[in-house]
Amino acid sequence: MSDREGHSGAGPSDEDLSLPKATVAKMIGELLPTEVTCAKETRDLVIECCVEFIHLISSEANEICEQESKKTIAPEHIITALKRLGFDSFTTEVEDVLKDHKQQQKDREKKADKIKDSGLTPEELMAKQEELFAASRARFAQPQGQQQPSAET
Fold this sequence. Notes:
By secondary structure, the chain is mostly helical. It contains 5 helices and no strands. The termini are far apart.
């Protein structure tokens, strides 16, 4: 469906789509020099531009997806959409972020496998966790000057 066609009534309207104002304000603040401030109207305009950019890219990616007879937009569709729309300069950074994301997913899977491969039953894992919590509570309850160094560090 192109972005000019009507919506079927499912999902939010364009007026309902936005980004968290506090998050955008924080991002803007981190990018600007400390002596520069950003007006609320400017922040709102940046949010509208971001939403429009996302809509443009996702619409193009959806068309690419449909051309390939796919039902799910894949990262490769987004990268192709960026290129088609003239945002070639963005693709390297997007590909880097995608690579980092895939690595994080692998690391999470390894962590989950580590728990499975521990050889402990769920009950034993829960008991071990409770022991760690109790030790942490005990260290936290001691006065600052009397805390003993942890054997784990």
